[in-house]
Amino acid sequence: MNLSIIIESLPTLLNATLMTIFLAVISIIIALFLGFFTALARISKIKPLEAIARAYVSIIRGTPLLVQVFVIYYGLPQINVELDPIPSGILALSLNAGAYLSESFRAAILSVDKGQMEAAVSLGMTYGQGLRRIILPQSLRIAIPTLSNTFIILIKDTSLISVITVTELLQMSSLLIAKTFEPLTIYLLAAAIYWVLITVLTTILDKMEKRTSQHVTL
């Protein structure tokens, strides 16, 4: 381990970490909306809508994220759809995380007793009101641990976006290695930054989960 290399490289890697955080935050926000509406489509009685949602989830979950990144960045230009590296990376991460989140949302919604929806309807609520006021608050608490885990995985998955030259933490590590010829030092430093980032994020999400559990009651 070269201490001088660590001191010189740390500010650059921390700056690249901001890009990693940016990619993860934007992607998870998009994925939450995508996953939620996909979950609603999966439980919908509208067959074409349900079929489209099922196909989307099946394709995304059945193919590696890296392949999805290549299809979006290198494949779409063949049909005249060209995206810069950062939008391509965000799109790939969002589609991937959205598919997994949709299954978490769907499982959480279906885990709520069907009798509660029937009771809501009998009280004069519409299906939408019952879903919004009765089912979704309860399913939220059930889904939160999975949502937290997905966000943590997404942070680590941003490293795959380095293959399309997005200068996030791993890509910057590779650039520094080409300059310093210290792969062990740089990669261990990058790993330490990932570990600290995930640890802090896990702590924050755990506190959010406990707070939500206190305010959402069955």
UniProtKB/TrEMBL annotation:
It comes from the Bacteria. The chain crosses the membrane at residues 20-43, 55-76, 184-205. It is found in: Cell membrane. The keyword Cytoplasm does not apply. It is a multi-pass membrane protein. Keywords: Amino-acid transport, Cell membrane, Membrane, Transmembrane, Transmembrane helix, Transport. It holds the Pfam family BPD_transp_1. Residues 17-206 form the ABC transmembrane type-1 domain. NCBIfam families: HEQRo_perm_3TM. Belongs to the binding-protein-dependent transport system permease family. This is Amino acid ABC transporter permease. It comes from Cytobacillus mangrovibacter. The lineage of its organism: Bacteria, Bacillati, Bacillota, Bacilli, Bacillales.
